[in-house]
Write a structure and sequence with these properties.
Layout: H1 15-23, H2 29-41, H3 45-58, H4 65-78, H5 82-95, H6 100-112, H7 116-129, H8 135-154, H9 158-171, H10 176-188, H11 203-209, H12 212-218, H13 222-237, E1 260-266, H14 273-283, E2 290-296, H15 305-313, E3 316-319, H16 325-334, E4 339-342, H17 353-356, E5 362-365, E6 380-383, E7 399-402, E8 432-435, H18 444-456, E9 461-465, H19 469-481, E10 489-492, H20 497-504, E11 509-511, H21 520-527, E12 532-533, H22 540-551, H23 562-574, H24 576-588, H25 598-617, H26 629-640, H27 649-666, H28 678-682
Parallel strand pairs: 1-2, 1-4, 2-3, 4-5, 5-6, 6-7, 8-9, 8-11, 9-10, 11-12
Helix pairs in contact: 1-3, 2-3, 3-4, 4-5, 5-6, 6-7, 8-9, 8-10, 9-10, 10-11, 13-26, 14-15, 18-23, 26-27
């Protein structure tokens, strides 16, 4: 014989207590919505309705009453009370006559009630209320917001600029101009997650608005970077009218003793990272082999050391900033340039449209932009075999040509005497991790790794290049959330370049960022003897630092994965003897390293220029291939939303080929020379 066990007591509903709090006006709207949603989710819709009724009855003076009435109407509709829902919507509109969503829902409710005429009248009423919103007015408001955001950004008011640009994006999410600046600002401000879609601005619009440079800071995805660059070029350049610009034919110069005429085009031929990189290389060009032209389109400079040195060796210097694109192209044609070198790419002040007029037989992408231009008019890219190994050339529309190391440096660059740690407020006995990359390169995942490293190395400090005050404070706050004392996060504020270089040597280990690693900054670090720890990915921006570290003679600091990066950082902080050996090795190889062989770099560039010239003379200039890039873009947008930060080469490619097979099963895709091959189609 079995005894019936006593039944468990029924759970006590929180409704009576919530109703009392609503009566006392002590239940916030946030709590109201949270509890009502919970009731609905658990099938207690009647209790949600009673809670709404009580709150509305006792909080009729609340300025957000119309929102509560709207949510109440939705709950009533879900409960099958169409009449009650209509009444709640009418009440919401009495409180807030311009509440658009209430007008829309009321019209739909009337339609469902069989009152099509009243539904039409309801929507027409709202259309008349918003009649002042014309296409012209929307366009003018959009322009005003974009200009306001631009000026706020230029004046360092980044938070305000971000908020203003978001308003512009909500007006026209399909327009990418505001979104490009908005995303860039959020990266500089370390506002994570960077992309935050809303009801009016979907994730696809945010992805479409990414510029190629911003994308490089956001994700390590070279095939999407390629597709994005191609799309960006079409938007930026379009199809200029080439009337009056017949294709310039190559001049027969090989074996004639004539010099090649090389034109360097850049806004950064000045005291700038690119200018510092190029100035000694330009001084070492063999003037019996090449003749140098410079087309400068940056800010006017006075007393600029880099420009002074460059002007001394450039045969013809042209300031083109005030000229329009057509006039510049005509000038280049008149100058009879053989090879035009684009040292801007898709960066600030770039004038990409100039190259669309094809003012020279050969156009080269070099030194200014970390990736493919994916344009119809850039035929070559100069890089190195670590940044772009042979198997990765599929990610570039240009023909890839190699130098020893992608990063030129200036061996004559001034470095101030090494200061003491005390001069910069740094403790003498602490292990100092450092990163002098721009804030826009610090991602949430990257910073989380740094916090893991700090947690594993008590007493260590992280010294980063200072950004906007809000960004600095944000990094400190995130550190606190990870259990790190905010005082362990230090900021290196702006300093004259020679002093900045000197102070870098005070750190113990440079922690590179991912997916956009250190470029010229890594060259600066190893130049002053600071070891750099990096993890290369699949794309140009994520592999550049590894090239510099290898060229400096310390390849052991190139990590296999983010986990390996963390482990090595912790190991080196705990093992000063090993780190001392690395630093000594760096010092011993300094003058003989590939990184500092600038004479060899100049000779190699001239060899490549003559190779390009020979190919042009023989009619062998490469033609960019754009097969399937629109499809790769669509797949890339899907993969972006999966949130994968790091992939091995094989795993990365499989991610794409799996998607390609799915697309192919729906609609056949022609094979291309990249990832979609017969072998990929046949693979399981």
């Amino acid at each position: 014989m079995y005894m019936n066990s006593p039944s468990a007591p029924a759970p006590v509903s929180p409704l009576p207590g919530l109703v009392e709090r609503a009566r006392q006006q002590q239940l916030s709207i946030g709590e109201l919505f949270q509890y009502a949603e919970s009731f609905n989710a658990h099938g207690h819709r009647g209790e949600a309705i009673e809670l709404y009724k009580a709150w509305i009855a006792f909080n009729d003076a609340n300025p957000l009453l119309h929102l509560v009435l709207f949510n109440y109407s939705v709950t009533l509709r879900q409960a099958g009370d169409l009449t009650g829902s209509i009444q709640a919507l009418r009440s919401a509109m009495k409180v807030e006559p311009a509440f658009g969503q209430a007008h829309i829902n009321l019209g739909r409710a009337l339609e469902d009630a069989g009152l099509a005429g009243q539904a039409i009248q309801q929507w027409q009423t709202y259309a008349e209320l918003t009649g002042e919103i014309t296409a012209d007015k929307i366009g003018h408001r959009l322009m005003a917001l974009q200009h306001t955001g631009r000026v706020l950004e230029n004046n360092g008011m980044l938070e305000q600029a971000e908020a203003t640009l978001w308003k512009a994006m909500e007006l026209k999410p399909e327009r990418t101009e505001a979104g490009q600046h908005w995303t860039s600002l959020r990266q500089r401000l370390c506002k994570w997650p960077i992309l935050t879609p809303s009801e009016h601005v979907p994730m696809r619009s945010l992805l479409d608005a990414l510029s190629p440079l911003t994308l490089a800071c956001y994700a390590d995805d070279p095939i999407f970077q390629l597709a994005k660059a191609s799309r960006y070029c079409k938007q930026l350049v379009g199809r200029p009218d080439l009337t009056g610009f017949p294709r310039v034919k190559p001049r027969q110069k090989t074996g004639t003793g004539q010099k090649l005429r090389i034109g360097y085009v850049s806004s950064d031929l000045r005291d700038h990272a690119v200018g510092f990189a190029l100035r000694e290389m330009l001084e070492l060009h063999d003037k019996s082999s090449v003749e140098l032209y410079a087309y400068y389109m940056g800010d006017k400079r006075t007393g600029d050391e880099t420009q002074t040195r460059m002007m001394a060796v450039i045969d013809v210097w042209r300031d083109i900033v005030a000229m329009d694109d057509k006039a510049i192209a005509q000038q280049m044609i008149a100058d009879e340039i053989d090879i035009l070198v684009d040292v801007n790419g898709y960066t600030k002040h770039a004038r990409t449209r100039i190259f669309a007029y094809r003012p020279a037989p050969v156009i080269v992408n070099f030194c200014g932009f970390p990736g493919t231009m994916a344009s119809p008019f850039h035929q070559y890219i100069i890089t190195d075999p670590i940044v772009v190994p042979a198997e990765d050339e599929i990610y570039y529309t240009e023909k890839v040509l190699h130098i020893a190391c992608e990063q030129p440096i200036d061996r004559k660059r001034e470095i101030a005497p090494k200061p003491t740690r005390a001069e910069y407020g740094l403790p003498e006995d602490a292990f100092i991790f450092a990163c002098f990359n721009g804030m826009q390169k610090i991602t949430q995942q990257c910073y989380t790794r740094w916090m893991t490293i700090l947690n594993a190395t008590p007493g260590s400090l992280l010294w980063v290049l200072s950004g906007d005050d809000e960004a600095n404070q944000r990094l400190k706050a995130v550190a606190t959330q990870h259990g790190i004392d905010a005082e362990r996060i230090l900021f290196a504020h702006k300093a004259p370049n020679p002093k900045h270089l000197a102070r870098m040597a005070l750190a113990d280990l440079f922690l590179d960022t991912f997916p956009y690693g250190a470029h010229s900054t890594a060259g600066d670090a190893v130049t002053v003897g600071l070891p750099v720890l990096t993890v290369p990915g699949n794309g140009f921006a994520s592999r550049f630092c590894a090239s510099i570290v290898s060229a400096a003679g310390i390849p052991g600091l190139i990590c296999e994965s983010p986990d390996d990066y963390v482990a090595k950082a912790v190991h080196l902080a705990r093992d000063p003897a090993t780190l001392a050996i690395i630093r000594q090795s760096l010092a011993d190889q300094r003058e003989t390293s590939v990184l500092r062989d600038i004479p060899g770099l100049a000779r190699r560039l001239e060899e490549l220029y003559w190779q390009m010239q020979g190919e042009a003379e023989r009619g062998e200039t490469p033609v960019p291939d754009f097969a399937n890039l629109d499809l790769y873009y669509e797949i890339g947008c899907e993969i972006m939303q999966e949130g994968v930060e790091f992939d091995t080469r094989d795993a990365y490619r499989k991610r794409y080929t799996d998607k390609l097979r799915q697309y192919h099963a729906f609609s056949p895709i022609p094979f291309d020379g990249r990832l979609w091959t017969e072998a990929a189609a046949a693979a399981e």
